[in-house]
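Hi Prof. W.,

I finally got the GTPase Der prediction working! I wasn't sure whether to trim anything, so I left the full sequence exactly as given:
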Amino acid sequence: MPKLPVVAIVGRPNVGKSTLFNRLVGKKLALVDDRPGVTRDRREGDAHLIGLDFRVIDTAGYEDQDAQTLPGRMRMQTEAAVAQADVALFLFDARAGIVPLDEEIARWLRQSSTPVILAANKAEGNAGNQGILESLSLGFGDPVQLSAEHGEGLGDLFEVLLPLLEGKEIPDDEEDERLDAPLKLAIVGRPNAGKSTLINRMLGEDRLITGPEAGITRDSIAVDWQWRDPLRGAHGEPRPVKLIDTAGMRKRAKVQDKLEKMSVADGLHAVDFAEVVVLLLDATLGLEAQDLRIADKVLEEGRAMIIALNKWDVAENPSSLFNGVKRALEDGLSQVKGVTVVTVSGATGKGVDQLMSAAFQVREAWSKRVGTGELNRWFERAIEANPPPAPGGKRIKMRYVTQVKTRPPSFVIFGTRVDQLPASYERYLVNSMRKELGFGAVPVRVTMRAPKNPFDQKD
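And this is what came out:
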């Protein structure tokens, strides 16, 4: 995974830093209490805000004390957090107004090279209006108005964070996200689809136990492999792959054994780890409802997916079978059209090169970042070709679009009344994006964002 940009929440004690931290990470990781000084050490967590991912640090309340005292050592921890952060989120209590310690923190932050966002917490209602006016004297401009406890104002926070954090993701040393890094490829499917047999054929050795009995594989097994692309010739560099074999996934109602439940859970975790997931079908059985459930899970997790029809060497009426599977996928996976379908044989190895070539191509699409100019030109063409509807006679104004992350490609569209866009128009935009921007059938995430507080239902 990439190293995420870092946001440090700073402020005096008891202004709601830990409450905001818990809100951003989506779980109660930090202790919260009305008493000041509950947080002493830095606490970190992964935050997700309307498609924007970042690392957030909850710091101790900043107190102007001697460095040898406990409050002083806590202050030094806070200073260290700000020094390593990409953004400092300076939180104050709008209801209490600006107090001398807030002014002291502001003086310190102005000397730092870290960009600062001022945020007024507890700003719901009108009780914080005076404090918000007072905060202008701190020199950081208009504050973002929040209620960490009630989750209000997070959309406005997203808007000010986005330009400061966009493009800040850097690859981690251990799991590099460059396209020449090993491809993490998971093979999933129902029991006895031939997953282990196919991987053994790829490796050229009986690395995994196979047999006619369903359910032999229990743990997810990762094996390093080098694939030599035939298109690169005999002297081409082999491409590194981490192959992940998983336990067969039966219908949940049929899974009674505790060990099998654990095996299936382990397989789903392997999907989270993978970049590309191959859903292996038994060509002698065709496509079944359980295959579509597995495919839904893969796409829900945002992974790129390929469908592989195994045992193709013994399939009857192959042309009819292939077309039937394609039609069933179009109907059953309506959220993603055009998923790549390849035919393979784990017994003979036929089709493996085609499968691997498709896997590397789909990873490239899944990792794609579109340039701002190209994205805006597509946006203008899409709206001109099919303007958004006007529900109730009120025009929906689409203003601009930005890509907030890759893997999967994720975008935010800003505009007026975009929350009223019908699902059919959102599908139109996503399908147009896939076709014109080269994403193909990989999952694409699009979030609509109105300029007002998304928690305010008033237009």
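The domain at 372-449 is CATH 3.30.300.20 (GMP Synthetase; Chain A, domain 3). Does that look reasonable to you?

Thanks,
D.
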